[in-house]
Design a protein that fits this description.
With 328 residues, the chain is an alpha/beta fold. It has two domains: 138 residues, Rossmann fold (3-Layer(aba) Sandwich); 162 residues, Dihydrodipicolinate Reductase, domain 2 (2-Layer Sandwich). It contains nine helices and 14 strands. Strands 8-9-10-7-11-12-13-14 form an eight-stranded mixed sheet, with helices on one face. A six-stranded parallel sheet has the order 3-2-1-4-5-6, sandwiched between helices. A hairpin with an 8-residue loop joins β12 and β13. The longest helix has 18 residues. It is globular and about 60 Å long. The N and C termini lie far apart (53 Å).
Length: 328
Amino acid sequence: MDTPINWGILAPGRIAHKFASDLGLVKNARLHAVASRSLKRAQAFARQYGAAHAFGSYEEMAKCPGLDVVYIASPHTGHHAHSLLFLKNKTAVLCEKPLAMNAGQVREMVAAARNNDTFLMEAIWTRFIPVFEKTLEMVKEGIIGELNTIRADFGFKAAYDPAHRLFDPALGGGALLDVGLYPVYAAAQFFGRPEEVKAMAIKGETGTDNACAMLFRCPGGKLAVMDCSVINDTPTTATFYGNKGWIKLHSRFHESERATLFLFGENEREIYVPKMGLGYCHEIMEVNNCLRNGQKESAKLPLDFSILLMENLDAVREAAGIVYPGEG
């Protein structure tokens, strides 16, 4: 029997609760520690999910004996520093997306992971969702012919609160890094680095990008058409078009269990591939497998890909004029 992997969770907010719930479903994985700036909050989270240790600072948890890997669930602006804290202590890191605020920070994190011979992965759970993996497989096998266009969107109408992280530029608020990453990820997964990037954003009262439309021209003349929003409910689907047909991931595509396959001259075929728990189980199992096999990064979601993804996001920001506090 495999020795359980001891997990820590940094910043026990909304997404951390979902992650901890799924962690409890994964064989040979257990919540070992949790850290918050509020000790009471950490203790309450530890009681709820059965963690052995609760800390009132991130620095304390970085020294916790027996900790194998930490899940970084802090706001975007904390990902860089919080990941470096654990990487320098040679504790493996699964960091919530986006990995950092810009490609320069991501490169620093990757360098720290490699210099310390320590595992690092960006928590793009979509990559490991079973129906997305099935879509990758079908495209790779040429089921829809040669892929030429991707259309993907992600939008929801958030209650406006200028103090909420979604609308706070100091916390990396806005649509692009919160939900726009998913359409941009889909394009990068299939097309890599775009040759040309067009983007425009709707700016809100606080200066955040409340919506963003993006168009990528990719190698071979292929196109990715994307948009994201925190002020509009959108279909939140992703469709992959080839010269023999298309595959559509249903809403919400980044965590969906359903897809439709259409081939010219044939009837549509519905595809259902269930996920485990809420869907976080799959990335947890990927990390566990990597750690047990001594891998320092995931072959399915390598660090060089995370650098490329952030470079693509930086290109969108430049085209749309999206700037965060402290930047030029």
